[in-house]
Amino acid sequence: MGQAAELESFLRDARVVDIKKEISGGRSRPWIVTLAAGAVRHQAIFKHFDYRRPQPQPHSYKYELAAYELTKLLGVEAVPPVVERKIEGLSGSLQIFLENCVSEQDRRRKKLEPPDPAAFARAVEGIRVFESLAGDKCLNFADLLVHTDDWRVCRVDFSEAFAPSPELREDCPITVCSRKLYLGLTRLNGEAVRTAMKPYLNDRETEALLERQALLVAAIDALIAEKGEAAVLF
């Protein structure tokens, strides 16, 4: 994900050469789209359903876009690049399909062990902070992707995220946080968030996001005061 801007351009502009529709279950029923630009080919995941709140069972590709925009505001790479694009007349989110990755669910099933188990465990636990900020469920191991070359961790599938609750989820305890994400949280500007989220979230969802930001900063500060910075930030 180091070339995020280049991948965004590829997702927007590359030619569609193949589409496999509704490749898995679940409400979003994503497509796998093969894209080509010259000799370069990549697969991407396309979601087009847009049932945003106040729908009773909200799920929307707009929430995928909001999650990625949020990572850019924070200066972290927790979500693979995703753009809005129209395919076969349908507007949706188009997210790069990460190669050389395995889900945390499959990693555990296959008993693949990282070279530094403690650092990897911190990275997995640290994803909870972003999930909490985005108002989504925590540590669904099927949605947690592990790069098998360097053991970086990222998260996909935010189609049901951004719950309008200002509270942090009780089932999502915060124990550690990456230093980069913590600094991003402390510097996050309310007006910048409102501007960036306006195409994707309603006002209630956005204000709840900002309230969760404040709660997360307070929670991490309390952990640092209790345990020391070295035990909390990595």
Topology of this structure?
Layout (H helix, E strand, L loop, with lengths): L3 H10 L1 E6 L10 E7 L2 E8 L2 E2 L7 E2 H14 L7 E6 L2 E7 L4 E3 H7 L6 H17 L10 E4 L5 E3 L23 H9 L2 H8 L5 H25 L1 H4 L2
Antiparallel strand pairs: 1-2, 2-3, 3-7, 4-5, 6-7, 8-9, 9-10
Question: Would you give an account of this structure?
Answer:
The protein is α+β, with helices and mostly antiparallel strands and 234 residues long. The protein folds into two domains: 4-96, Phosphorylase Kinase, domain 1, CATH 3.30.200; 101-232, no CATH class. The protein is 40% helix and 21% strand. It contains eight helices and ten strands. It has helices spanning 4-13, 61-74, 104-110, 117-133, 179-187, 190-197, 203-227, 229-232, and strands spanning 15-20, 31-37, 40-47, 50-51, 59-60, 82-87, 90-96, 101-103, 144-147, 153-155. The strands form three sheets. It has a five-stranded antiparallel β-sheet with strand order 1-2-3-7-6. A three-stranded antiparallel β-sheet has the order 8-9-10. The radius of gyration is 18 Å and the shape is globular. 36% of the residues are buried.
Which regions are unreliable across 5 or more consecutive residues at pLDDT < 50? none
The major sheet is characterized as: 5 strands, antiparallel
Class by helix and strand content? alpha+beta
Q: State the helical fraction.
A: 40-55%
Based on DSSP secondary structure assignment, what is the total number of beta strands? Answer: 10
Integer tally of domains: 2
